[in-house]
Give the backbone structure.
Amino acid sequence: MIEIIRENRLIHLRNACISYVMAELPGGVLAHLYFGAPLRTLHPQGLLRHAGIASIEDFTVQECSLDKLPQELPSFGLGDMRPGAVTVEGPDGSWSADLRLVSSEVIDGKPALQDLPATRDAGGSKTLRLTLRDEHTGLEAQLLYTLFEHLPVVARSVRLRNTGSQALRVTRLHSLCLDLPDDKWELITMNGAWGRERGIYRRPLMPGFQGTASRHGASSLQSSPFLALARPGANEAHGEVIAAALIYSGSFTATVFGHQYGSARMLIGLNDEDFSWLLEPGEALQSPEAVLVHSREGIGGMSAAFHALWRGHLLPQRWVSQPRPVLFNSWEAAYFDFDEDKLVAIAKAAAEAGADLFVLDDGWFGHRDNDCTSLGDWYTDRRKLPGGLGCLVDKVRDTGLQFGIWMEPEMISPESDLYHTHPDWAMQIPGREPITSRHQLILDVSREDVQDFMVESVSQTIRDSGAVYIKWDMNRNYSNIGSAVLPPERQRKLPHRYMIGLYRVMKRLTEAFPDVLFEGCSSGGGRFDAGLLYFCPQYWCSDNTDVLSRCRIQYGTTIVFPPSTMGCHVSAVPNHQTARVTPLNARFAAALCGSFGYELDPRKLTDEEREEVRRQITYAHETEDTRLNGRFYRLLSPFEGNDTAWISVREDQREAVLTFIRERSQVNFFPTLLPLRGLNPDFTYRVEETQEVYGGDELMQAGLLMPVKPGDAEALVYTIRTVEA
Ligand code: DGJ
């Protein structure tokens, strides 16, 4: 049950998993008092004295230092020396916002956020809406706090509105500020690069400013819009963790400030380096939504909360538990070098192996023989496909497969018909030569005419091909950040307006084609974030499909995102990214962790391999519900040792799929005895591959032996099922 209790100047939000408490101090100053495990009641005197305030009644802004006060929406310039959550320049040029609480209301359910993806009510949630006002400028801030039943989560957002008579300029807007009474934490962020996305970085919290950020115009390959604070010693199963994630796909900051008094402030929101928003009288600006998670069961408990939140309240509900097609993607099979015969032959071999879907990747449109041209010219390259897309699709369908296709709708090649017709549609700074990356420019997606073009070209491609799947790619980050249609004083709106435009396009397309599966991609996992997962139920995890690299990338990704969201494919050896040769079984074991497929030419498989692939696909189908919809536990971390292991356990605990991958072969060690998690201690299980029978308690306490073969990158996949009584 969710309760929002307002009494004695305290506001207490509570469900079975968490409490969140604030205090309305005299003068309307909104203090934060507590976030953590659920409390029956809160007597605030201790927390207030900790912040240097004798009692609520004794508080005055003049005499109590705001630098000591934990706050909900602090701004700079009022005595608080920590980084603020909002900065707004007034007509007089000053830039502090003195926001005081003027009203509060409780709403059943959850209001949608204008233009931005956000968590949804799935029945039973409650929202607290607080309105704060700065009398000096007329700036109003509406803060939303939503609690969901049975989840240790608070969803938060801020909406600013100019109720004054003169223009204001917002130069900082965080979605969430959380002041914590102590700094005895370790900071966890996810960082990486192309081919090694979402590594886990953990370090002690230090005084001052630390965290992660992106100014790429995308959440980026380099950092994820997420951060966690874990108590020293907190591990996968034990210890307190507080985490925040932003439902946003553009530039962001996720930071913590260790304060002089030994407290800590967590902030997550828009990156203000490339942001400045002119707010005319009557205009409003909505922040992205941030979600705050509390776990008493370590990092694993935090991940479970994120997974349940995204699955129940964010992912397109139509796809959450829907079986995903096993796909064969043409990219590493053919790159740009194909014609109709070759594609049909690949599709035929894929169909014989038991696949469901053939995906035609890059190279099918304009005159695209390499990555130098044609983005924007979304019509079939008749040199390669003389009968047009329709003819190819008919032949692919004749093999028994469905058809999916790649597009990169946000981009434009200078060498394209589109650029010659609409050069002003590219983001650019008038008078400066645009800087390309991967020989391409970015469309100014903030423009409505560009949005219409994107919707129309994707719709037309779906209509022409009957595609049931779109791989939505995005392969470069910002330069030339300028819009031909914005006046100078509004140019710095562009990065955020771009994201609003992109979300509008995605909304229109996913509403128009609800049965089409959209898989996101950005040079691999460069925009793997909750913003795009609102529209795309799965996301290509990384261009790096090497088993050992994938152990790290996928292990890291599951810190925040559930297995069903990860596109994971078996590829050929030597691996195209690392040149490593690994056994087919290990490549399969790694790819089983997510939405499963292949990134290779099936015609090049030996007869033996083809048989093995057929068995793999059957197995992937049979175990899909457990693997993708079960509860996921990380067991051994590739960041900490030579072995990686994880297990997915079906909700009724009657089936589990265990994956174990050894990185380097080792001599003269005992084989690993691996304690499992998530099983029912009272059930009896059989390991199908060995036919051995164990109690659930034994498997979790004594462990299961992992008799992996000698050799690098050797793997085991075990299916663990209850023995029928
Ligand atoms: C980058 C993607 O990550 C790849 O999978 C592939 O689709 C290429 N783009 C195509 O250009």
About this structure: The first strand starts at residue 3 and ends at 7. The mean pLDDT is 97. The chain has three domains: 2-314, 321-409+446-477+515-623, 634-722. The CA atoms of residues 586 and 715 lie 5 Å apart.
